[in-house]
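User: Show me a protein chain along with its predicted structure.
Assistant: Here is one chain, sequence first, then structure tokens.
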Amino acid sequence: MPRRVTIAALALGLAGAVLTAPTTSAEPAASAKSDSRKQHWDEADKTGFGTSKTRQSEVWFTLEGGRISEVFYPDLSTPSVRSLELTVTDGASKDRQSKDMSTVVSRPDERSLRFTLVSTDNDGHYRLTEQVVTDPARSAVVISATVESLDGGQHTLGVRYAPALGNGASGDRVSSTKRALKAVDQMAHVASTIMTSPGLSHTSRTSASIGASTATVSLAFGRTSQSSSQAAKQSLAQPWSTTAAGYDDGWHAYLGSLKPVPASAAAIEREYDASALVLAAGEDKRHPGAFVASPSMPWVWGDEVKDLSSPSAAYHEVWSRDAYQIGTALYAMGDTAAAHRVVDWLFGTQQKEDGSFPQNSDVDGKPEWDSIQLDEVTLPIALAHLVGKTDKKTYRGIKKAVRFLMHFRDEDTHRTAPFTTQERWENQSGYSPATIAAEIDGLVTGADIARQHGDTKLAKQWDRTADKWASKVKKWTVTTNGPLSAAPYFLRLTKDGHPDKGTTYSIGDGGPARADQRRVVDPSFLDLVRFGILSPSDPDVVNSLKVVDQDLAVATPNGTFWHRFSFDGYGETSSGAEWEITDPGDGKTHGRAWPLLAGERGEYAVAAGQSGAPYLASMAAAAGASDMLAEQVWDGRAPTGQACCPAGEGTRSATPLLWSHAVLVRLAWTIQDGRPVDQQPVVAQRYLN
């Protein structure tokens, strides 16, 4: 998926932009008003992500900037809240979590996705403690909040709410009553209600006082105002401790249903469990098997004012590539049922007209972006074979996918597979080692499934094609005269299948407008090893690792990480400003280092008979205080430093990124088993024996 800095200062002004003068609880309710202005979603570096394990609770929360940020309802492709933050007043002034307090976020129970936020004001007058869960029985976020005075004064609580029902505020009609803050989007058939115990007072359209130092807050959803109000009342009718216990119990039971934490992960057990929880939480509840890439909208993807993604359609989508990574991790950790659901969802949303898979889609399978990525066509096949989902219905989908691959012709170049319109980083066409590896893996595993169904002729045809591509992958992607080494090495890709030609292309994201393809490398050729197509001791693989380490490796206090590819510009500017689309060659944005690439390197190490433990430790160390793994970490270039962003710590990229958590889990089991989790014997025996 497009790999995805910062919108904090802009986002902080969001909630205040829709406020009206407060009214007392004795006055008439504030009138409803529709808000049609384009605004900003919160930043993507979430410090928390949670939901109940139950399916009847169709709501997910995120935390960012010391408060609740986006809340998703009724599914994981639909953000319906921009922010919900607590306020503290001493009667003379009112402080907001996001603006006037410093907050530490933690997970007090390492086997649950319950989060605690402890906020203190800048002058030390009070301490605000907030605990967040969702109600297992209904679609409601439930908060327990207490403000403790530290200066002998009196401090009371309030709430401040910025709804964005149905993926945007344009249709929202917001209002308040004596006891509730309400929002309704009739076109989206979504409504929300905030109620508290003790009850609200002094309500305006989007803010209210509670007038107490301890309170329970319920943010509930439904299709109508009445149903959301009912859910809010019901969630408040039971003690918060009861709700929290039920929430925790659900996650405890889930972890208890999995394989025991492998011995390889004993030193990072907390992060391993967190990764398992995040992966499970990333599945939509209305559409089982649909796992989103991340519950976030990084950088300009969350900036509706700039119209890049409005309504939001960024990382809270499903990519079959990411689904493969997630599915392999679920399978490795023992959730075979979830891995089967992934396969069912993928082939259930396969494009009926041609057998391809969307570049990405909403959780209901509706395509969003429309490029063709051939690894996304074949990885579902490999996943189906890995997890044993080879029934007749799945096999029909597999045949359609292979038929699409065999007849593929790029519209612009008229080249056929294994050439792909986009490779795994989604901004270049060409002959990609990673894509070709996925194509071969899908063909060989698909052929094995075909034989299971008696289609020996098809199986032979698919195997022959895989063998042909395996024999030519180096011819298409390994240069013998490139400037980075006197010995042959893999390129990120070639535009023309001629790796010794100095063909140039525009890198994108502000990178060079004309880069010699022989100067651009990435570590994705390691998929050829992980899938069992090339030996880890292959001399071109070994030399390519040296080239990649010289060009892309980043040493940090948390270990070594890698950039995606040479000249990558998908990340913050040197001043920390957000990534956005820029002109070729301007060099304004800088892609940082990726934890998941450390995991993939660890998988290679295990395949090569080396230790994968250092790579697993690096990934775990890159997680934040509440155990969320980011897409990228700071890489030693500006603005890294004590005053900003420690090297090896998460950037403001997509956090949590499920792919990162998936690779951590998969690496732990790869170390435990002594072989890559998703290396399938039918492939390895064909090419390595």
